[in-house]
Amino acid sequence: MARPGAGTDTPTGPLTALVARAAATELPSAQLCRELAVAHERADDPNGAVRWALALTDADASADAGAGLAAWSAAAGVLRRCLPRTRPLARTARVAVLGSSTTSQLTALLPLAAARAGVAIEIYEGGYGQYRQEILDPASGLYQFRPDVVVLAVHAGDVALPAIADDPEGAVAAEVSRWTSLWDTVRARSGARIVQHGFALPAEVALGHLALRTAGARHQLLARVNAELGRAASAVGAGGGDAVCLVDCDRLAAGVGRRTWFDPRYWHRARQAVALDCVPLLARHTAAVIGAQLGASRKCLVLDLDNTLWGGVLGEDGLAGLALGEGPLGEAFAAVQDYALELSRRGVVLAICSKNNEADAREAFERHPGMRLRLSDIAMFSASWDDKPTQLRRIAATLGLGLDALVFVDDNPAEREAVRQLAGEVDVIALPTDPHGYLRALADYPFFETTALTAEDATRTATYRARADLAAGLAAVRESAGSLEDFHRGLAMTATVVALDELTLPRVAQLVARTNQFNLTGRRRDADDLAALAARPTTAAICLRLADRFADHGLVAVLIAVVDGDALAVDTWLMSCRVIGRTLEDELAGLLLAEARRRGLARVAGHYRASAKNALVAGLYERLGFTRVLPADVPPDAEVTWWSRRVDEPYASRNLIRVVTADHRMEEVLG
């Protein structure tokens, strides 16, 4: 969510002066955001109150330690009172916070930070230092709360390591085992995802610099425990995924300064392990990880060109006049490009949005020796003289993404403000005036978090670029006398059926968490739940990879159905937005019907649960020949429709995709 622009408010009375003050600066202070949130609440404008409460979290993100606890606390109160009166957020979760120190400040701020990440949360706070008791007691308040996510807000003082260990390996292994056993208990008793705070290393080290040479030194062991917990989290459940995630508190502490992160005054007086000024920062990053677990992360970084990816204006300075790669200024812009490449390798899609002649802009990518980014790294290249909001809408539509998946970076404050006001769902990163600060501004943005790396992440930009090529091809078809069916045949598409197993599970879990547009039931399951469901003999799991003459798009579709009486009933049916419009759903329906026949069942059943984003598939069952039904044991619900289709009724897919299998269990279905 971008900061509300002046044009989003209709000020009256006391609001007028506040809005005028906000309009005079790109990023209003936390205090001003708080005043605006409170003023909108008093004016009975819950939408405005929530917008400014959330804007406050970005104002504080620009400060070194997220200073402004009082402002955050006030904004959290506004959010608590006003959010229920606004349009619901797309995702909700029940979050339990268990701590080894005082957590009341964190739990007060976490709903505000989570709402900024796109998740409305209900909070349960365990008693001070009672995290073990809550986890080990099956009748505790934790399990009565039925959490979706459990946050272990623990600190280095609760780690059972000696000052110098005689057996360093054994000490680390024992400590890691202690924490992972708690994870296992939570997972077994509640199925909740876990977010654990990693341990921030203390600034006070009695061994001094000798600690680096002492294998058993506590300082070294703490760092190793963090690393081993990271490895253990990656292996939790069948195939890992998002079941357990860590917040890198040591990185956060190092960023603000360890002596700032831990203030002994707060510890000795209130057992507050994190200094109060740093609690907003901790809440923000904890919420970003929770958002990633629930599939709320942003997907696409959209970059301007002139004075953003290089120094200078291409149309005025020419290719040779650009600052890029050499000299202090050129190195600053090269660092931004290097970071964008790193984001791309972890699955963030890159796009260009520039006011430029397209041919000239592309030439810079192809010919300038200082360019780190290449055209092959860009999924959508938009260079024209259209305004930036119009270009951003075109980028989102071409890539099959919502505006709320985009993050926009531009050196020009006027362009940033235009996007905030006219395409408010796009997140906008405010760059400093000095290009040497661009990298830090980009790196401080927390909402690209992801829970795991999959093979598809490394090639995501290429697959989205292929989608853009498809869109261009569709446009060409519309302009010519050719047929859309002929165009699809010309793509030479091949769908490969693969098993839902330990190799594909991380990607399937990622799709289930993230997919919104082509998602008929909206069910969100983590990797463990998916593995358990797929292992049942009454479950049919059909996963499809798709490749065409442009690219291998990877695993892009999942259909999970369970035997229910005489029917094979759809539990989960979703497809990546990158392949929407390819007719892959027709092939999936045929596979589902064939699987039901193989099992000797009479029909296939399914339901559609409407959401804010899946109207695209509202008519899918009807188009595929299903009949709407109203089960006797299911009360009418305007958001849910139920459908059925007999397996003995003729069905023919469009036959525009060749379907093969890498799963011997599907050979009989494919015939």
Automatic annotation (TrEMBL):
Residues 94-290 form the BF1531-like N-terminal domain. Signal peptide: none annotated. It comes from the Bacteria. This is HAD-IIIC family phosphatase.
